[in-house]
Amino acid sequence: MDTYRAQRLDRPGPIGASTDDAPPLVEVTAPVPEPGPGEILVAVHACAVCRTDLQLVEGDLPARHLPVVPGHQVVGTVAAVGPGVAEDHELPSIGDRVGVAWIAGTCGHCRFCTSGRENLCEEARFTGWDRDGGYASHLVADARFTHRLPDGFADLDAAPLLCGGVIGYRSLRVAGMGPERAGARLGLYGFGASATCVIQVAVHWGLEVHVCTRSEREQAAARELGAAWAGGYDELPPAPLDAAITFAPSGDVVAAAVRALDRGGVVAVNAIHLDRLPEMPYDDLWWERSIRSVANVTRADVCEFLELAAAIPVRTRTEVLPLGEAGTALRRLAAGDVSGSFVLRVD
Length: 347
Fold this sequence. Notes:
This protein is an alpha/beta fold. The protein has helices at about 50-60, 155-160, 165-175, 195-205, 215-225, 250-260, 280-285, 300-310, 325-335; strands at about 5-10, 25-30, 40-50, 75-80, 95-100, 105, 125, 140, 145-150, 185-190, 210, 230, 240-245, 260-270, 290-295, 320, 340-345.
């Protein structure tokens, strides 16, 4: 019987600073799962590592299903299909290259699902949180929530687009940014994998981008990608911002972004977990400034972003590690020892 390999989370716990510390992830082998009705089996080629994975593994994001295989930025090929899939020609077929993203399923009939807001569905399920994800050689996914990938992206380059890129795209939209806002001033607070995708879209749309990040190396990378200005969190951009997106899971960073806004500006918080929201003077929020959270993504977000990313094209910065070093990737991510995205390669 064929078997598959996975890096599985049995119980959340801290990622130790030393490689000698017992990792929360354990390597397991098991029979390759079979897809059920409406599902497909994906042979995984690559899975990018997200900060949300780290928050789940360490317990900052409460587990909803244990044991679970993390990972929600998955690229692979369809290896088998369950009953009902082959008859629907809109669904992937055996041999298709597909991506599996964060959103793994919704009820399909609530007021959110029927109004184009399936990301807010109260019954939504998520890859690597509610059902097994891509830190594995295979995964089973709802065929309706997988995406054929455009040509032009290698597997290892496409993987980070499926969360960091897509949630960054949704953050731009939540902040009111788009090609119709050419010339608007946008602030990016933090400059990791998601912001690297966002700045390429923003520059393509003609926005004036200002980046705040502690790392001088990341400030330089932002300028190379077209930032008009880059500085530290304790610095104000040279002009008030029409919108800002925060990527760091820190309420202090959100407060700094609010202080940098012009009248009527919006801060979009790109984080599933935030340490806190600090007390701030009402004057910082006055003049119709606002703070909005960015909650998950829709399938439409994924499709729109992948099409746009292929057209620009959006390029990712990656460091590739074998699947067995998922714990190392998370440990280094926790320490800030990464430039761009870690991507786990499945051989």
